[in-house]
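Write out the bound-state structure for iron/sulfur cluster.
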Amino acid sequence: MSGTRKLHIKSYGCQMNVYDSQRMTDTMAREGFVEAAAPEDADLIVLNTCHIREKAAEKVYSELGRIRRLKEGAARAGRKVVVAVAGCVAQAEGEEIIRRAPVVDLVFGPQNYHRLPDLLARAERGAKVVDTEFAVEDKFAALAPASRAATRARGVTAFVTVQEGCDKFCTFCVVPYTRGAEVSRPVARIVAEVERLADAGVREVTLIGQNVNAYHGEGPDGAWTLARLLHRLAGIDGIARLRYATSHPRDMDAALIAAHRDLAVLMPQLHLPVQSGSDRILAVMNRRHTRSDYLDVIARLKAARPDMAFSSDFIVGSPGETEADFAATLAIVGEVGYAGAFSFKYSPRPGTPAAERDDQVDDDAKVERLARLQAEIDRHQAAFNETCVGRTLDVLFEKPGRLPGQLVGRSPYLQPVQAMAPASLIGEVVAVAITRAGSNSLFGEVARPFAHEPAPALASLES
Ligand code: 5AD
Ligand code: SF4
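---
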């Protein structure tokens, strides 16, 4: 091999794709690849794609147009570039991608990315390679761990996949087809990974999975629940904060709710998608819970942890959704009082039951409902942010902020918080007096540099 080879990965979609891209980077580092910030410099370009909504896939094809020109330019300069499409579009479309975009050399799904070194070797010998079989071997075990330096460069917060795939089969969703059946990683592997992260300076870990609270990984004494796993991880030195996403309302068991009461490091914030506020639509979606089941879970969480903040995902214009169904969705936003939410127009996904229905809602209605819903969500988000003004919140500072001398971090409720603070406080949980709320972030002043230490440390900050 001549010289160092360069890799550029672009991630679309969810946090799990971000995690997968990092693990691909770590695995290719073992093969001698370094990261290239821009695709122009790379010998291997990977698009780690998302198939959740139509727009996500379309973005990939337009990016491939740009990459084709880049690859042709490199070829004229005598440099060979390998182009790979990974992730959920790759899984769903397979070789169709190479047919539609011949610039692509390599297509592999989310269950195959640990094989990237071998797949690349085949592509470099000139073959077009497609690997979308669900692998039987343990993907995570085959991947290289991140080096200490790579972990440090990624900052003081990290994602760790603990569970992947989904067996719920909501009628609108492609995930069970792209990510496959639900699989949980063993407890010991997750503990080792979090210990490694903590040792490299990570302070906050978000456990991720498409259905993370259905976690049931193998422990030393049988299967462990997510609640048990959180208790175990809470004991790891250096870990100041734990979060988990994304959860299904049906899997919020009593032990997990109690963990929000009992574990100080478990943040009082939960992303708990409801999708719709209408029982009729929830049934069509095969969500397997009603509006009142959901509100009951919210009430139990608030009883366990009164300052709990919630966020959700919503879909508007699902097949058969009437104005009355939509009104029920609008109403639930106020009833829960969300701190934030994502909302989407229903997008028919090939192969899913909802896409086959003949009662599709027309796009004008979707556009109009989305605007109304987003306005309602924004109103509640602003109201929630306003309630933080005048309070002192623990902030984990993550990186330099917008202005010189500023740092930005996150509150326990996941809001970005900007404050004047020295760079030495990156990675520290600091008490910040909130003085102002913007639409998406809070602004404040450092009250005490260390949230849980007495005032004297302030002197060192001021000096
Ligand atoms: N159309 C629109 N939104 C969707 N989501 C999932 N599938 C679809 C679809 N077919 C949304 C859901 C989910 C989030 C990740 O994306 O709200 O929670
Ligand atoms: Fe997109 Fe779902 Fe795949 Fe994540 S798991 S990349 S959200 S389709």
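---
Residues 20 and 247 are 19 Å apart (CA to CA).
The first strand starts at residue 5 and ends at 11.
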